[in-house]
Amino acid sequence: MKKVFVLVVLFILPLVAYLFFASGVNNFGKLPILTESIPDITAISPDHTLEDNITILGFLGSDIEQVKGNVFNLNQKIYKRFYEFNDFQMVMIVPKGKEDKIASLKEELGQLADARKWNFVFATPVEIKELFNGLKTDLSLDENFGNPNVFIIDKDKSLRGRDDDEDEEIKYGFNTISVADLNNKMEDDVKIILAEYRLALKKNNANRSK
Question: Which pLDDT belongs to residue 16?
Fold first, then answer.
């Protein structure tokens, strides 16, 4: 009996553990696509694109002072943890006329972290509405053409999120007012999409080497 017990501990339990974690990777290894192929931002700003980037997309609105706290939450909880990954970027859409306010904001962000992947795109109200509506969410812009939520956009310009969220059922965006939302949900989802692309890259490299 003692030999059988030792064999179970040495061989069977590791196998069961492997199968458990392998099934976990399959079940939780991808972040659901909620909206395919949203409009790109190149028509608004030729120097910027969503394509081939993992983008955190936000709509700041015209009252920059009011949303500063949201931006700093996002900077501390998400940006600083992920900005060193290749193809990761922040894109914040801002109404035209707020260039000076954004210059000051970016200077403040630069004192907290390397801000080179913070991108601010200036647009007209019509352009902002068209882009936001292209996400096809159940959310809306406020009177300043802003929204406190930010959105995860993949390299194919598709909106990623949760289709079985325990609080919202379908979770399109992450509330930058809520540190808990950023910490407990958004951080996990950004990790998932980064891992998804890393895994795909490893598979491609392995196939090429065969």
Answer: 42
The closest of 166, 167, 132, 164 to 150, measured between CA atoms, is 132
Confidence of residue 199 (pLDDT cuts 50, 70, 90): confident
Which tokens hold the place of 146? 């802003």
Classify 147 as helix, strand or coil: strand
pLDDT in tens, 144-157: 999 999 999 999 99
Range of the domain at 98: 34-209
CATH at residue 174: 3.40.30.10
Strand positions, DSSP E, the chain: 33-35, 54-60, 88-95, 118-123, 146-153, 159-160, 162-165, 169-171, 174-175
Number of domains in the chain: 1
